[in-house]
Design goal:
With 307 residues, the protein is α/β, with parallel strands linked by helices. It has a single domain, classed as TIM Barrel (Alpha-Beta Barrel). The protein has helices at 2-16, 19-23, 54-66, 74-78, 119-129, 165-175, 194-211, 232-235, 285-295, and strands at 37-40, 42-44, 51-53, 69-72, 89-96, 105-108, 111-114, 138-141, 178-181, 219-221, 236-240, 247-251, 254-256, 279-280. The strands form five sheets. Strands 1, 4, 5, 8, 9 and 14 form a six-stranded parallel beta sheet that branches. The protein has a two-stranded parallel ribbon with strand order 2-3. Helix 3 packs parallel to helix 5 (119-129). The longest helix has 18 residues, at 194-211. The protein is globular. Bound molecules: zinc ion. The site of zinc ion has 5 residues, from loops. Zinc ion is lined by residues 96-97, 182, 186, 223.
Protein backbone atom coordinates (compact mmCIF):
# COMPACT_ATOMS: atom_id res chain seq x y z
CA UNK A 1 0.00 0.00 0.00
CA UNK A 2 2.72 2.43 1.03
CA UNK A 3 4.64 1.55 -2.10
CA UNK A 4 1.68 2.21 -4.32
CA UNK A 5 1.03 5.55 -2.67
CA UNK A 6 4.66 6.54 -2.91
CA UNK A 7 4.98 5.61 -6.53
CA UNK A 8 1.82 7.40 -7.59
CA UNK A 9 3.02 10.44 -5.67
CA UNK A 10 6.37 10.19 -7.43
CA UNK A 11 4.61 9.93 -10.78
CA UNK A 12 2.60 13.05 -9.98
CA UNK A 13 5.70 14.98 -8.95
CA UNK A 14 7.49 13.89 -12.12
CA UNK A 15 4.50 14.91 -14.21
CA UNK A 16 4.32 18.42 -12.82
CA UNK A 17 8.02 19.09 -12.20
CA UNK A 18 9.67 21.33 -14.78
CA UNK A 19 11.86 19.41 -17.21
CA UNK A 20 15.12 20.88 -15.94
CA UNK A 21 14.39 19.85 -12.37
CA UNK A 22 13.61 16.32 -13.50
CA UNK A 23 16.83 16.04 -15.43
CA UNK A 24 19.13 17.37 -12.77
CA UNK A 25 18.11 16.08 -9.37
CA UNK A 26 20.01 17.67 -6.52
CA UNK A 27 22.94 15.34 -5.92
CA UNK A 28 26.15 16.39 -4.27
CA UNK A 29 29.19 16.15 -6.55
CA UNK A 30 31.35 13.05 -6.04
CA UNK A 31 34.38 13.14 -8.30
CA UNK A 32 35.88 10.05 -6.63
CA UNK A 33 32.83 7.88 -7.25
CA UNK A 34 32.75 4.98 -9.68
CA UNK A 35 31.65 5.01 -13.31
CA UNK A 36 29.87 1.97 -14.78
CA UNK A 37 31.18 0.81 -18.16
CA UNK A 38 28.38 -1.32 -19.61
CA UNK A 39 29.10 -4.14 -22.02
CA UNK A 40 26.53 -5.21 -24.61
CA UNK A 41 26.85 -7.97 -27.17
CA UNK A 42 23.85 -9.09 -29.19
CA UNK A 43 20.76 -6.95 -29.33
CA UNK A 44 18.03 -9.22 -30.67
CA UNK A 45 14.47 -10.33 -30.16
CA UNK A 46 15.09 -11.99 -26.81
CA UNK A 47 17.25 -11.85 -23.71
CA UNK A 48 20.02 -14.47 -23.51
CA UNK A 49 23.46 -15.03 -21.98
CA UNK A 50 25.05 -12.76 -24.59
CA UNK A 51 21.98 -10.92 -25.75
CA UNK A 52 19.65 -8.14 -24.73
CA UNK A 53 16.20 -7.93 -26.28
CA UNK A 54 15.53 -4.72 -28.16
CA UNK A 55 12.73 -3.91 -25.71
CA UNK A 56 14.96 -4.50 -22.71
CA UNK A 57 17.69 -2.36 -24.26
CA UNK A 58 15.19 0.47 -24.68
CA UNK A 59 14.21 0.10 -21.02
CA UNK A 60 17.90 0.25 -20.01
CA UNK A 61 18.21 3.66 -21.67
CA UNK A 62 15.05 4.86 -19.94
CA UNK A 63 16.17 3.54 -16.55
CA UNK A 64 19.57 5.22 -16.79
CA UNK A 65 18.06 8.47 -17.99
CA UNK A 66 15.49 8.57 -15.20
CA UNK A 67 18.17 7.85 -12.62
CA UNK A 68 20.22 10.80 -13.81
CA UNK A 69 22.88 9.04 -15.89
CA UNK A 70 24.24 10.53 -19.12
CA UNK A 71 26.49 8.65 -21.56
CA UNK A 72 30.10 9.48 -22.34
CA UNK A 73 32.65 7.54 -24.41
CA UNK A 74 35.70 5.61 -23.21
CA UNK A 75 37.88 8.34 -24.74
CA UNK A 76 36.13 11.00 -22.69
CA UNK A 77 36.74 8.92 -19.57
CA UNK A 78 40.47 8.50 -20.11
CA UNK A 79 40.85 12.16 -21.09
CA UNK A 80 38.83 13.17 -18.01
CA UNK A 81 36.42 15.11 -20.23
CA UNK A 82 33.27 14.26 -18.33
CA UNK A 83 31.24 17.16 -19.67
CA UNK A 84 27.78 16.23 -18.38
CA UNK A 85 25.48 18.52 -16.38
CA UNK A 86 26.19 19.01 -12.68
CA UNK A 87 24.24 16.54 -10.59
CA UNK A 88 24.19 13.85 -13.26
CA UNK A 89 26.42 10.77 -13.46
CA UNK A 90 28.42 9.36 -16.34
CA UNK A 91 27.74 5.94 -17.82
CA UNK A 92 29.66 4.33 -20.67
CA UNK A 93 28.02 2.04 -23.21
CA UNK A 94 30.31 -0.34 -25.05
CA UNK A 95 29.04 -2.61 -27.82
CA UNK A 96 31.20 -5.60 -28.75
CA UNK A 97 31.40 -7.77 -31.85
CA UNK A 98 29.58 -5.57 -34.44
CA UNK A 99 26.52 -7.81 -34.91
CA UNK A 100 23.67 -6.75 -37.23
CA UNK A 101 21.34 -6.40 -34.23
CA UNK A 102 23.45 -3.48 -33.07
CA UNK A 103 23.14 -1.63 -36.37
CA UNK A 104 20.83 -2.82 -39.14
CA UNK A 105 19.69 -1.02 -42.24
CA UNK A 106 16.35 -1.46 -43.95
CA UNK A 107 16.19 -0.68 -47.66
CA UNK A 108 13.07 1.29 -48.61
CA UNK A 109 12.56 2.47 -52.19
CA UNK A 110 16.29 2.36 -52.76
CA UNK A 111 17.03 4.38 -49.62
CA UNK A 112 18.67 3.05 -46.48
CA UNK A 113 17.07 3.64 -43.11
CA UNK A 114 18.41 2.63 -39.73
CA UNK A 115 16.27 -0.27 -38.50
CA UNK A 116 14.37 1.13 -35.49
CA UNK A 117 14.64 -2.23 -33.71
CA UNK A 118 18.46 -2.31 -33.88
CA UNK A 119 20.46 -0.81 -31.00
CA UNK A 120 21.50 2.23 -33.05
CA UNK A 121 17.89 2.76 -34.17
CA UNK A 122 16.66 2.57 -30.60
CA UNK A 123 19.38 4.94 -29.46
CA UNK A 124 18.62 7.55 -32.16
CA UNK A 125 14.88 7.42 -31.43
CA UNK A 126 15.55 7.78 -27.69
CA UNK A 127 17.79 10.76 -28.36
CA UNK A 128 14.99 12.44 -30.34
CA UNK A 129 12.64 12.31 -27.36
CA UNK A 130 15.45 12.95 -24.83
CA UNK A 131 17.82 15.38 -26.60
CA UNK A 132 20.02 15.80 -23.52
CA UNK A 133 20.87 12.07 -23.71
CA UNK A 134 23.27 12.60 -26.62
CA UNK A 135 25.00 10.26 -29.02
CA UNK A 136 27.97 8.87 -27.18
CA UNK A 137 28.85 5.22 -26.98
CA UNK A 138 31.85 3.10 -27.90
CA UNK A 139 31.55 0.44 -30.60
CA UNK A 140 34.25 -2.26 -30.39
CA UNK A 141 34.02 -3.75 -33.81
CA UNK A 142 35.13 -6.78 -35.78
CA UNK A 143 35.49 -6.21 -39.53
CA UNK A 144 35.80 -9.85 -40.54
CA UNK A 145 34.33 -12.44 -38.18
CA UNK A 146 31.81 -15.16 -39.01
CA UNK A 147 28.01 -15.09 -38.76
CA UNK A 148 27.57 -11.45 -39.73
CA UNK A 149 30.00 -10.09 -37.13
CA UNK A 150 31.66 -8.00 -39.79
CA UNK A 151 30.97 -4.31 -39.32
CA UNK A 152 27.34 -5.09 -38.48
CA UNK A 153 26.48 -7.69 -41.08
CA UNK A 154 27.43 -9.00 -44.48
CA UNK A 155 26.36 -11.54 -47.11
CA UNK A 156 22.65 -10.90 -46.51
CA UNK A 157 22.76 -12.14 -42.92
CA UNK A 158 19.72 -10.50 -41.29
CA UNK A 159 19.19 -8.76 -44.63
CA UNK A 160 22.48 -6.85 -44.41
CA UNK A 161 24.53 -6.31 -47.53
CA UNK A 162 28.31 -6.49 -47.53
CA UNK A 163 28.42 -3.16 -49.37
CA UNK A 164 26.82 -1.36 -46.41
CA UNK A 165 29.58 -2.13 -43.93
CA UNK A 166 31.87 0.88 -44.40
CA UNK A 167 28.91 3.23 -44.59
CA UNK A 168 27.72 2.08 -41.17
CA UNK A 169 31.08 2.64 -39.55
CA UNK A 170 31.30 6.07 -41.13
CA UNK A 171 27.80 6.93 -39.95
CA UNK A 172 28.68 6.06 -36.36
CA UNK A 173 31.76 8.28 -36.44
CA UNK A 174 29.81 11.17 -37.99
CA UNK A 175 27.17 10.92 -35.28
CA UNK A 176 29.83 11.27 -32.59
CA UNK A 177 30.06 7.66 -31.44
CA UNK A 178 33.52 6.26 -30.71
CA UNK A 179 35.05 3.57 -32.93
CA UNK A 180 36.97 0.94 -30.99
CA UNK A 181 38.93 -2.06 -32.22
CA UNK A 182 38.16 -5.64 -31.19
CA UNK A 183 40.60 -7.41 -33.63
CA UNK A 184 39.95 -8.76 -37.11
CA UNK A 185 37.93 -11.87 -36.25
CA UNK A 186 37.96 -12.23 -32.48
CA UNK A 187 41.02 -14.46 -32.09
CA UNK A 188 41.90 -15.72 -28.64
CA UNK A 189 45.15 -13.75 -28.50
CA UNK A 190 46.80 -16.05 -25.93
CA UNK A 191 46.83 -18.85 -28.51
CA UNK A 192 49.00 -17.11 -31.08
CA UNK A 193 52.53 -15.83 -31.52
CA UNK A 194 53.54 -12.19 -31.59
CA UNK A 195 53.24 -11.80 -35.36
CA UNK A 196 49.67 -13.11 -35.49
CA UNK A 197 48.62 -11.05 -32.44
CA UNK A 198 49.81 -7.88 -34.15
CA UNK A 199 48.20 -8.86 -37.44
CA UNK A 200 44.83 -9.46 -35.77
CA UNK A 201 44.91 -6.11 -34.01
CA UNK A 202 46.44 -4.08 -36.84
CA UNK A 203 43.95 -5.39 -39.38
CA UNK A 204 41.12 -4.28 -37.12
CA UNK A 205 42.62 -0.78 -37.09
CA UNK A 206 43.25 -0.87 -40.84
CA UNK A 207 39.60 -1.75 -41.53
CA UNK A 208 38.40 1.20 -39.45
CA UNK A 209 40.80 3.42 -41.38
CA UNK A 210 39.33 2.14 -44.65
CA UNK A 211 35.89 3.32 -43.49
CA UNK A 212 37.00 6.60 -41.90
CA UNK A 213 40.37 7.65 -43.29
CA UNK A 214 42.74 8.92 -40.64
CA UNK A 215 40.56 7.93 -37.68
CA UNK A 216 42.74 7.53 -34.59
CA UNK A 217 41.55 4.38 -32.82
CA UNK A 218 42.31 4.89 -29.13
CA UNK A 219 40.36 2.08 -27.49
CA UNK A 220 40.87 -1.66 -27.81
CA UNK A 221 38.65 -4.39 -26.38
CA UNK A 222 40.39 -7.72 -25.72
CA UNK A 223 38.49 -10.60 -27.36
CA UNK A 224 37.13 -12.77 -24.53
CA UNK A 225 39.06 -10.52 -22.15
CA UNK A 226 42.16 -12.61 -22.87
CA UNK A 227 45.59 -10.96 -23.05
CA UNK A 228 48.27 -12.05 -25.52
CA UNK A 229 51.25 -13.83 -23.91
CA UNK A 230 53.26 -10.73 -24.69
CA UNK A 231 50.91 -8.30 -22.93
CA UNK A 232 52.62 -5.20 -24.31
CA UNK A 233 51.32 -6.10 -27.79
CA UNK A 234 47.75 -5.39 -26.68
CA UNK A 235 48.71 -1.73 -26.35
CA UNK A 236 51.07 -1.18 -29.25
CA UNK A 237 52.57 -2.98 -32.20
CA UNK A 238 52.75 -3.04 -35.96
CA UNK A 239 52.14 -5.25 -38.97
CA UNK A 240 53.10 -4.95 -42.60
CA UNK A 241 50.29 -5.46 -45.07
CA UNK A 242 51.74 -7.87 -47.68
CA UNK A 243 49.31 -6.57 -50.32
CA UNK A 244 50.42 -2.96 -50.19
CA UNK A 245 53.71 -3.17 -48.31
CA UNK A 246 52.28 -0.56 -45.96
CA UNK A 247 53.12 -0.76 -42.29
CA UNK A 248 50.13 -0.42 -39.98
CA UNK A 249 50.94 0.74 -36.46
CA UNK A 250 48.68 0.90 -33.45
CA UNK A 251 49.11 2.43 -30.02
CA UNK A 252 46.00 2.45 -27.85
CA UNK A 253 45.25 4.64 -24.86
CA UNK A 254 42.56 2.42 -23.37
CA UNK A 255 42.13 -1.36 -23.08
CA UNK A 256 38.82 -2.91 -22.09
CA UNK A 257 38.49 -6.10 -20.05
CA UNK A 258 35.30 -8.19 -20.18
CA UNK A 259 34.26 -8.10 -16.55
CA UNK A 260 34.74 -6.36 -13.25
CA UNK A 261 33.04 -3.76 -11.11
CA UNK A 262 32.26 -0.16 -12.03
CA UNK A 263 35.45 1.72 -12.96
CA UNK A 264 37.35 4.21 -10.87
CA UNK A 265 37.30 7.76 -12.20
CA UNK A 266 40.39 9.02 -14.08
CA UNK A 267 41.65 11.09 -11.14
CA UNK A 268 41.62 8.10 -8.76
CA UNK A 269 44.94 6.50 -7.70
CA UNK A 270 43.70 3.07 -8.83
CA UNK A 271 42.49 4.17 -12.26
CA UNK A 272 44.18 2.17 -15.01
CA UNK A 273 43.22 3.10 -18.56
CA UNK A 274 45.00 0.00 -19.84
CA UNK A 275 42.77 -2.37 -17.86
CA UNK A 276 39.27 -0.97 -17.65
CA UNK A 277 36.67 -3.24 -16.04
CA UNK A 278 33.25 -3.65 -17.62
CA UNK A 279 29.86 -4.89 -16.49
CA UNK A 280 28.10 -7.42 -18.74
CA UNK A 281 24.50 -6.30 -19.03
CA UNK A 282 22.43 -9.44 -18.62
CA UNK A 283 19.40 -10.15 -16.44
CA UNK A 284 19.10 -7.59 -13.63
CA UNK A 285 22.79 -6.66 -13.59
CA UNK A 286 22.15 -3.03 -14.54
CA UNK A 287 19.61 -2.39 -11.77
CA UNK A 288 21.86 -4.19 -9.29
CA UNK A 289 24.91 -2.13 -10.28
CA UNK A 290 23.07 1.18 -9.97
CA UNK A 291 21.53 0.20 -6.62
CA UNK A 292 24.91 -0.92 -5.24
CA UNK A 293 26.63 2.33 -6.24
CA UNK A 294 23.84 4.27 -4.58
CA UNK A 295 23.86 2.19 -1.38
CA UNK A 296 27.63 2.40 -0.93
CA UNK A 297 27.74 6.10 -1.76
CA UNK A 298 30.10 5.22 -4.61
CA UNK A 299 28.23 6.87 -7.45
CA UNK A 300 30.23 9.41 -9.43
CA UNK A 301 28.32 12.69 -9.62
CA UNK A 302 29.48 15.55 -11.81
CA UNK A 303 30.03 18.93 -10.22
CA UNK A 304 29.75 22.34 -11.88
CA UNK A 305 32.05 22.65 -14.91
CA UNK A 306 35.55 23.88 -14.04
CA UNK A 307 36.19 27.50 -14.99
ZN1 LIG B 1 33.85 -9.94 -28.29
Amino acid sequence: MTNIRLSSLAALVLAVAPLAAQNAPARAPNSQGRIPILEYHLVSDKDSRWGRSAEHFRRDLELLYQRGYRPITVTQLIDNKIDIPAGTSPVIFTFDDASPGQFRYIEKDGKLEVDPSSAVGIWLAFNKTHPDWGKRATFCMLPGAAAGHAFFGDRNIEGQKTAWRMQKVKFLAEQGFELCNHTLWHANLAKYGDAMVQEQIARGVLAIDSAVAGYKVRTFALPLGIWPKNRALAKSGSWRDPKTGREVRYNFDAILEVSGPAAHPPTHAKFNALSLPRIQIVGMELEKTLDDLEKKGERYVAGPAAK
